[in-house]
Each structure stands twice: as structure tokens, then as C-alpha cells.
Specification:
Length: 156
């Protein structure tokens, strides 16, 4: 009898554009999301939902235990940076900020997380990315120091 590893690991990844610039335009965001989805799938992971705002992105993946999340996120950021520059989607320098947030979920929470990511435009009408991100850190009881968080636009 063969034995194997069976798992269900669900992770939401969140990170902003460097300098919190609102550079991801609605005219090309779908193409960017498809490209990022391809990277995740080519690395053997399952993209469940991806969406964002002009200044940040959220994606939910089903992750295999053999996956190193930091390597996956680094590859997604590096390749999508190059993709945006190669396609010349923006005349400004495009770059993702260093770091990311990663939050795990149970299978029973997936519908809510998928809906949350799908409705990013709605959620961010009343809440800045800084408020949203710090809310995640507090909800998950993640200790943090302000100086190690993302660069923020100070007039939020």
C-alpha cells in the first residue's frame, strides 16, 4: 500500500506597489492577473482568486506542502514586474514593494475569503490599504513594528 501526503493549505497573499503608487490601471489589470495566475500554476500551485486595487494586490492560493511560499511570492513579483515593464503598461517605473502579508484559512472560510478578494473595489472605498493591512495583522494577532511595515503614503 502506498502512503502519501495529503493537505489543504490555503493562503491569502497581499502586497502593494512600491511607494504605494496607484499604477495598476483597470485597462490592464486583468492581463496582469492572468499572467500572475500562470506563474502560480506553473509552480504547481492553485490560484483560487486574484484581485486588487491600483496600489495593491490580493491572491488566494491552494498551496502544496512542498511549496516554499517566500520563493513563490518572490517569483510572482519578479516576473510580473518584468511583464509590466516589457508590456509598457505604464510610463512610470513599476515595482512591487518588498515584503508581503500571508494569511492562512480553513476550507470552511474559503467562500468568505474569495468574496472578500472579489469585492476589493467595494471594500477599499471606505478603508485605505494601510487600514486594511493593519486590520489583517491585528485580526491574526501578528506582532509588528510600524517601521517594518510597507512604505505608506502619509496623507491617508
Amino acid at each position: 500500500m502506498n502512503t502519501g501526503t495529503f493537505s489543504q493549505i490555503y493562503i491569502q497573499v497581499v502586497f502593494p506597489v512600491k511607494g504605494r503608487n496607484s499604477l495598476v490601471a483597470s485597462t490592464w489589470e486583468d492581463e496582469l492577473y492572468k499572467y500572475m495566475t500562470g506563474i502560480v500554476q506553473n509552480k504547481g500551485q492553485k490560484m483560487i482568486r486574484i484581485n486588487g486595487m491600483p496600489d495593491h494586490i490580493h491572491f488566494l492560493i491552494g498551496m502544496r506542502p512542498s511549496c516554499c511560499l517566500s520563493d513563490l511570492v518572490r517569483e510572482v513579483k519578479k516576473a510580473s514586474n518584468a511583464f509590466v515593464q516589457e508590456k509598457r503598461f505604464t510610463k512610470h517605473k513599476f515595482e512591487w514593494q518588498e515584503g508581503y502579508g500571508a494569511f492562512s484559512y480553513s476550507h470552511s472560510a474559503l467562500d468568505n475569503v474569495i468574496a472578500y478578494i472579489a469585492n476589493q473595489k467595494e471594500h477599499n472605498r471606505t478603508k485605505s490599504f494601510k487600514e486594511e493591512y493593519i486590520g489583517f495583522l491585528q485580526k491574526y494577532q501578528i506582532e509588528y513594528k510600524d517601521e517594518y511595515l510597507f512604505e505608506w503614503i502619509e496623507d491617508e
